[in-house]
Every structure is written in C-alpha cells, then in structure tokens.
Design goal:
This protein is 69% helix and 5% strand. By secondary structure, it is mostly helical.
Length: 304
C-alpha cells in the first residue's frame, strides 16, 4: 500500500471501509446500500447525491474484491501517467456517467413495460409499484472501473494481459473490446442476472467522451502560437526579463533573418519602420514597463 499513488490508495481504503461499515450496520437492521445506493430517480428513496455515493458501496465480498483488484491493477498505472487530479476526475466522471446511463435504461424499462401497471407479480405475491421502484437499487464501482479499463486499453493497446481462464496473454485493446462486447450482449439479453451491464458500458462511453474532449482541448492549446515557434516565444519571454538592448537586437536580428519581414518593414510600409525605430528607441531609454499599452501592442503586432 505504501507504494501506491495517493488516489488509488485512498479509493481502496474508502471502498473497503464503506463495505465494512455496511456489514456492521446490518447487524442493527440498517442497510447502508439502501441509503447510499443509486435508486431509480422516480422512486421515493432516490436522492441526487446517490449518483456519487453508489460507486463506493458493494453488494458482497466477491463484488468488492474484483472491483478493488481492478482499481489496484489498472488504476495505479493511469494515475502514474495522468497524475492524481486528472485520474480522480476521470474516475468520478466515469462513475457518475455509469449511474446516469443506468437511470436512463431503467426509465426505458419503466416506460415501456411497467408504467401501465399498479404492481408487479412475483408469483408468491404482488408488490405495489412504489415498493418495486424502490427495489431498483444500483451499487458498485464497476462503471468507473470499466472507464479505467477503457483508458488503459487506449493508452497501452499492445500491452499483453493474462486473463483467466484464457491460457494465452492477449493485448489490452482486444481485452477492452471483448469486455465491451460481452457487456453489450449481456445487456440486451432477456436474462436478469442482477448486473447493471449498461452501467458498465455507460462508464466506458463517458470515459471515451472525456478522453476525446481532453485531447481536443490539448490540440487547441497547441495551435495557439503567438510567434513563429515555441522557441521564439520562450526567447521573447526571457529577453523581457533580462536586457532591453538585447530585446532591440532580437527584433532587428529577426527582421534580417526573415526577408518577408524585412520587406514588410523597409519596403512595403516605411512609415511602420519609422514607428518601430521610435518605439525601440524609447524601449532602450525607459525599459519595457516605460512603454504605453498602445506601444507594447504595436511592438507585438509588428513582430507578428
């Protein structure tokens, strides 16, 4: 545990503590899963904050063991690569997204199959619809973990994993694709196994959206170039902090280096050349802070 990154370690601790707390509370006829699990939003027991708390509750030992094993195995790698803050935001977004997906699937089921009935017949008796809706309760970190699996597969697609009971290692990308296909097939089947398969797919979907938006934002930030290169921008920033005469020489050197700029200054617009010399002369005398905002902007615009 001491070698685990901060968020991964705390996720393991919080989930285990919540599970143990529920075991203790059940001895006093208090079911924390019923309190903090995600109820159907039409049900009386639904609370908005359950979209967050449900991912820290688990149904049994097997449920929490495999979920926490996945957090330990894949989550720590993502946290090392992304950093703690980005990993935590990604994990929570996937978990909340999985909950929203589950709510949407439950609403479709309710609207198409249950809305016209006042109760549900289980054979041994009929349960009123209000009570049945309160029974629709989702717990577990699986949705967030499926998002983690997706991110791992995208970051390390060719890493080989041993997956029981497959006797040979498979690449991470095929592992993720296979799990997604299995969840989709299980979700659309008519069997009721008590597993929120569409919530797992929702965690993957929201994770994919998060990664695509993040990459798009990175691409946009890299495209905002104020000088002809990042090196020139850093050179400009460094000169502002050092020598004003060096800044003047830098502008002249750039003008000589680039014929198009020289033409722009000396042949196409001689008035602008004179204005540049005036501003540079003032820069030598007063320093950069001595220039007016208009002169600073002109200096910047002339270089561009």
């Amino acid at each position: 545990m001491s070698n685990l990154p901060t968020i991964t370690k705390n996720l393991l601790i919080i989930n285990v503590l919540c599970f143990l707390a529920n075991i203790v509370c059940q001895r006093y006829d208090i079911d924390l899963n019923n309190v903090f699990g995600l109820h159907f939003f039409i049900a009386e027991n639904f609370q908005f904050w359950q979209l967050f708390t449900y991912m820290f509750m688990h149904a049994n030992w097997e449920h929490i063991f495999f979920n926490m094993f996945a957090v330990w195995m894949f989550g720590r790698t993502l946290e090392y690569v992304w950093g703690s803050r980005r990993f935590l935001s990604y994990y929570l977004i996937c978990g909340v997204g999985a909950g929203l997906t589950q709510e949407g699937v439950q609403y479709i089921e309710y609207a198409t199959q249950l809305a016209s009935y006042s109760g549900v017949d289980f054979g041994s008796g009929t349960i009123p619809m209000d009570a049945y809706l309160n029974m629709m309760n989702t717990v577990g970190a699986s949705g967030a973990i499926y998002g983690v699996l997706l991110a791992f597969g995208l970051l390390f697609p060719d890493n080989r994993l041993f997956v029981f009971p497959i006797p040979v290692p498979i690449k991470a990308k095929w592992f993720v694709v296979g799990y997604a296909a299995i969840e989709l097939l299980m979700g659309i089947s008519t069997t009721r196994d008590g597993v929120a398969h569409f919530a797992h797919l929702g965690g993957m979907l929201f994770g994919l959206i998060y990664i695509l938006c993040w990459k798009h934002r990175q691409a946009r930030s890299r495209s905002k170039v104020y000088f002809e290169s990042d090196g020139a921008r850093k050179e400009w920033q460094g000169l502002k902090k050092t020598s004003w005469q060096g800044l003047v020489d830098w502008f002249r050197k750039k003008a000589k280096r680039r014929p198009s700029m020289k033409y722009h200054f000396h042949e196409a617009e001689p008035k602008r050349d004179a204005e540049l010399e005036r501003v540079l002369a003032k820069l030598r005398q007063t320093g950069y802070e001595g220039l007016t905002e208009e002169e600073k902007q002109k200096l910047f615009d002339m270089h561009k």
